């Protein structure tokens, strides 16, 4: 009898603590109170996010977040910053979610919760057409490679390519400019943004990189289950309705010549 009572008492104590420690306010109530959904992004990643004709942030991720804002019944605001500052900005409350072509990754998962994924991606190599210093993935060892700081391309080149001299840039485009100037042997970047750069710089070319396989998702603060549920429902519906494919086609086209 005594044992049973002790067990019940312990269970009650644990339950009380768990309730007391639970977050007071969920992300969705806060967004409704403030009347806006703030999306943190790095608008140097076409077609996912880039600056439109009036300097406003546009792209596939903006379309997805607009659908999330509509679902909650609020306005959407996009905040642009360096890619490697996004997670700390989310954690310090500068926005409600990150939508930045962000790859789901174990280390990031210790700091944020990811939604269901909405795109498959790979890294790809950009080379100078006139003077290609690299002819394929196996050729990257020991080369000078440009990447965007804090991205999966940065991690991959730093951790997995032997003897690589990895140079970090604020954007893939900045890295590509140094490739044109002959200061780099190659740039490693996500496929669609790399295609957009090559589209606008005909002296550059792409080489496949088959060993990488990534998925993009939206990141919310750890434990923000209410917001994550809305985000997941919206993404699943957009995928089922063929909308993500539509947004992608639109922005691949629209980001040509930017
Ligand atoms: N997908 C890459 C990553 O998550 C790059 C994203 C980006 O530069 N916006 O690191």
Describe it.
The chain has helices at 2-21, 27-34, 60-72, 86-91, 152-160, 172-180, 191-200, 225-240, 243-254; strands spanning 36-41, 50-51, 57-58, 75-80, 97-98, 112-121, 123-128, 144-148, 165-169, 186-190, 204-207, 214-221. The radius of gyration is 21 Å and the shape is globular. The relative contact order is 0.18. The strands form three sheets. The chain has a five-stranded mixed β-sheet with strand order 4-1-5-12-6. It has 258 residues and is of the alpha/beta class. Helix 3 packs across helix 8. It has nine helices and twelve strands. 40% of the residues lie in helices and 24% in strands. It binds glutamine.
Give a short synopsis of this structure.
It is built from nine helices and twelve strands. With 258 residues, the chain is an alpha/beta fold.
Helix content: 25-40%
Please trace the helix and strand order, writing H or E for each element: HHEEEHEHEEEEHEHEHEEHH
| Large-scale geometry | globular
**Largest sheet geometry:** 5 strands, mixed
Please give the alpha-carbon distance between the first and last residues.
75 Å
Structural class: alpha/beta
**Radius of gyration, whole Å:** 21 Å
Number of DSSP-assigned strands: 12
Average pLDDT over all residues: 93
Strand order of the largest sheet: 4-1-5-12-6
Q: How many H/I helices?
A: 9
Oligomer: single chain
Bound molecules: glutamine
Low-confidence segments: none
Query: Which percent band covers the strand fraction?
Result: 15-25%
Write the layout of secondary structure elements.
Elements: H1 2-21, H2 27-34, E1 36-41, E2 50-51, E3 57-58, H3 60-72, E4 75-80, H4 86-91, E5 97-98, E6 112-121, E7 123-128, E8 144-148, H5 152-160, E9 165-169, H6 172-180, E10 186-190, H7 191-200, E11 204-207, E12 214-221, H8 225-240, H9 243-254
Parallel strand pairs: 1-4, 1-5, 8-9, 8-10
Antiparallel strand pairs: 2-3, 5-12, 6-12, 7-10, 7-11
Helix pairs in contact: 3-8
The structure holds glutamine.
